[in-house]
Amino acid sequence: SEHRLADLERVQVLGHGNGGIVYKVRHVRTGELYALKLLHPHHQSDAAVRRQIYREIEILRRTDSPFVVRCHSIVQSGAASGDFALLLEYMDAGNLDSLLRRHRRLPEAALAEVARQVLQGLSYLHSQKIVHRDIKPSNLLVNRDGEIKISDFGVSKMMVRSLAPCNSYVGTCAYMSPERFDPDTYGGSYDGYAGDVWSLGLTVLELYLGHFPLLQEGQRPDWAALMCAICFGEPPSLPDSASDELRAFVASCLQREADRRWTVEQLLAHPFLTRYQSESSLVLKKLLLLPEQCLA
Ligand code: ATP
Ligand code: MG
């Protein structure tokens, strides 16, 4: 469908990051809400960053899945012809990072639901030969229907053959897998897809613990400390309160060698997901309705 910027009124800022600012907007005539992400490729002097912006647009144009945030249209923004805005499906319950901060930590049943939906999103993306490469709580969006969708394709790649070293990376390195730092040691038959599984494992662990697992609370995430923790540190362990199934799930994702990690399809049948099959979606929905409450 056709959308013009003039038909949209800004309601509030939803967030900003490396990619650009994101507004909540309302379509004046229909009252429909959207998220509008502004991108300014021509303001970027860095060619690599410019390329990434076009890549994000290209990927969003192609994807069509209930587990991936939908892009309704790409509109020209501003007078400069190089400026774009992505008109995205509005996710009214925010991202998993803010949900975590509201609840301090998330109960296992909700995590099983997060894992199931993100794995379905990854299964779709990987089938389309897209590696997301930036799975982390703030890039997983939620709505009040309890749907979780993968968003932010700012650093994604279509069918990677080469490895992207950390220094060519625009965002944070925190959720990057060991083979992104050291492909010779950890890469095996590297195809990039297993990196998304690593990041999902780290994300689930963070949502359970309430803080980023590879650094001490309060420790500054500098490049060297992170690389050491990811490539050489002991795999982060779960407290006794965690179930055996959750422990096993996280361990299956956080195998340091990419070849030993479970695949997305294997993880979709993991005992952690089957354990909470019947209740997980309800627990997540309740969590979304109960602000400022710790159910963990
Ligand atoms: P970062 O570099 O921090 O990852 P970014 O510039 O790549 O950010 P996004 O991750 O796409 O931008 O969006 C930033 C934030 O804006 C998200 O974490 C989310 O809170 C909010 N946001 C983005 N898209 C939507 C959406 N479709 N619906 C609701 N909120 C959204
Ligand atoms: Mg983001």
Automatic annotation (TrEMBL):
Signal peptide: none annotated. CDD domains: PKc_MAPKK_plant_like. Its EC number is 2.7.12.2. Pfam families: Pkinase. The keyword 4Fe-4S does not apply. GO terms for biological process: response to other organism; response to stress. It catalyses: L-seryl-[protein] + ATP = O-phospho-L-seryl-[protein] + ADP + H(+); L-threonyl-[protein] + ATP = O-phospho-L-threonyl-[protein] + ADP + H(+); L-tyrosyl-[protein] + ATP = O-phospho-L-tyrosyl-[protein] + ADP + H(+). ATP binds at residue 37. Residues 8-273 form the Protein kinase domain. It is an enzyme of class 2 (transferase). InterPro entries: Kinase-like_dom_sf (IPR011009), Prot_kinase_dom (IPR000719), Protein_kinase_ATP_BS (IPR017441), Ser/Thr_kinase_AS (IPR008271). The keyword Phosphoprotein applies. Keywords: ATP-binding, Kinase, Nucleotide-binding, Phosphoprotein, Serine/threonine-protein kinase, Transferase. Gene3D superfamilies: Phosphorylase Kinase, domain 1, Transferase(Phosphotransferase) domain 1. GO terms for molecular function: ATP binding; MAP kinase kinase activity; protein serine/threonine kinase activity. It comes from the Eukaryota. Belongs to the protein kinase superfamily. STE Ser/Thr protein kinase family. MAP kinase kinase subfamily. This is mitogen-activated protein kinase kinase. It comes from Spirodela intermedia (Intermediate duckweed).
